[in-house]
Amino acid sequence: MVPDTERYAALDLGSNSFHLLLAEFRDQRMVRLHTDKAMVRLAEGLDEKRNLDTAVAERALDALHRFRPVLAELPADHIRVVGTNTLRAAANADGFLESAESILGAPIEIISGIEEARLIYSGVMAAADGPPRLRCVVDIGGGSTELVRGYETPQQLQSLYMGCVSFSKRFFADGIVSSNTVNHFNRAHRAARAELQELQHLAEGAQVIGSSGTIKAVARVLYGGELAEIKREDIDKLAAKVADAKHIADLDLPDLDSERRPVFAAGLAILHATFCELDIQTMQVSPYAIREGIVHDLAGRLHGGDRRADTVAALMQLWQVGTAQARRVGDTALALLHQLRPKTGSEELQRLRWAAQLHEIGLALSHSDFRKLGAYMIEHADLAGFAKTEQEYLAYLLRNQRGRIKPPREHYGFHPNPDLLLCLRLACIIHRDRTDRGLDGIKLKARDNGYRLRLPREWLDQNPAIEDLLRQEEEYWQSQPQALEISEV
Question: Is residue 140 situated within a structural domain?
Fold first, then answer.
C-alpha cells in the first residue's frame, strides 16, 4: 500500500519530446503536481547507420537542464528516467547517456518497445473510468507506435517501428505534402497500414483509447482545442484535407501547436491508417500516458507490487525451474553477500535473488549449454518491468555462474558488481548436488585486492567434491582483477 503524500518523478526521454511528471499519492490516488515538456525531436538526429547527430544530441542535452531541480528534491528510488525508441536504436548512445545522467543526477533506463507499451497501458488505465472492460490502447510516439489489448492488465502488446518524427523524416523531409507527381501523405498512410497488417484483432470488440501528443493534437484540431472522442468520419475529413495540401506550412488548422506542426502530417497519417486498418469508429483520448504508468510502477516497486518479481515467477513456472534448488542457491548467495557487504543496497539484493531463481532456466532447452541458452533467453526476451540493462546484468550472471569467467561487454551504464557474481558462483558450488547445506563456520570477506573465503576443515572433509570445485574456483578468479583466496580454519 502506497503511503499518503509520497512523491515520485517520471521523466520520459522520447523520440519527439521529453516529458517530466511530478506526482503525489493522496489516499491511494495519484495527483499530478507538476508537468514539463521539451520538444527535442531526437529521432531527427539518427542517420542511416543509426548514429545520433551531434547537434541534435546537444539540443537534447540542453533541454535536460530544466528538469534537474525537480529531480534533485527527491530520493533516488523515487525517480525513474526512461529512454525509448531513439535511444534504443542509437548505435552511439553511450556518450549521450553519460552526459545526460551527469546533468540529471539520475540513471537512465533504456526500455524495450514492449515494456514501453506496458507502461503506457498502466498509465492509461489509471485514468480509465467505469468497470473493467476489454480495451485497446494506441500510442503514437516520435519513433514508435505502441498498441496494447487487455482488461485491467495488458494481454497482447505490440511495438511498431513508426512514429511522427521518423515518418516525417522519411516522407516529409522537405516539408512537401503533395506535388504534381507524388502525394507524400498517401505514401505515409500506405506505409503505416502495411505495418498494421494482421493486427486487426487488437481492437476487435474493445473500447479504443488513444494517448500522447499526436492523438491529443488531432483531437484538439478537430474539436476546438478539446480532448474529445475522435470519430471516424471526422478524422477521414481531416486526413483528406491534409493530403490535399501542398506543404506543411500551408496547413490552416486552428488549435495546432506550432511545435507540433512539423510532425503533424506524419502523425495524422499513422493515426488515420490505424483507424482504417483496425476498423476503428471512435477513439477515446486519455489525459494519461507513459509518465503516469512509470509513477505507478515506481510506487509498486517500493510497496510490494514490483512487476519484475511477477515476471521472474512467471518465467520459473513457464520453464519449470526447480524451485527448491533456486531457493537453496538464492538463500546461500544472499547470506554470503551479507557477510561480504552487509550494507548492500536493495536493488543489488533483488538482482542476486532473481539471478538465483533463474540460473537454471536454460535447463529446459539443454543440459550442456544451459548457461549460454539461459543467458540468451533473459537478455533477449520481453520481460515486463525490466530495463534492457537489467536484463543484460542478469544474463551476465547466468552466463558466468560456473566455469571460466568471461568479461562483460563494455558500454556506458553497465558495470556488473563482481561481489554478486562471486556469491552466486559459490552458492552454485555449495549446492551443486542439490542438497541443503549450512554455512556454519564459513566466512567470506573482502580484501584490498580481492576476496578471502575461509572454511572449517571438518566441513571440507564432509564435502570432498565441493572442496575440489572450490579449488577450481580459486584458479578461475586468478585471472580477474579481484583474486579469490581460499583457506582452512
Answer: yes
Name which of 183, 193, 166 is nearest 243 in CA terms. 183
What are the backbone angles phi and psi of residue 75, rounded to the nearest 5°? -60, 150
Residue 255 forms part of a structural domain: yes
Q: Are residues 335 and 384 in the same domain?
A: yes
CA triple 317-318-321, angle to 5 deg: 55
Query: Does 277 lie in the same domain as 140?
Result: yes
Tens digits of residue pLDDT in 58-98 = 999 999 999 999 999 999 999 999 999 999 999 999 999 99
Does 350 lie in the same domain as 269? no
pTM: 0.89
Give pLDDT tens digits for 351-372.
999 999 999 999 999 999 999 9
Do both 85 and 160 map to the same domain? no
Those residues with Cβ within 8 angstroms of residue 62's Cβ, 6 or more apart along the chain or in another chain: none
Q: Is 229 left (phi over 0), alpha (psi -120 to 50) or beta?
A: beta
User: How far apart (Å, rounded) are the C-alpha atoms in residues 84 and 113?
Assistant: 7
73 & 141 share domain? no
Q: In 3D, which of 254, 403, 430, 194 has the Cα closest to residue 325?
A: 430
Are β-strands 207-211 and 135-140 bridged in parallel, bridged antiparallel, or unpaired?
A: parallel
Bridge partners of 124, per DSSP, are: none
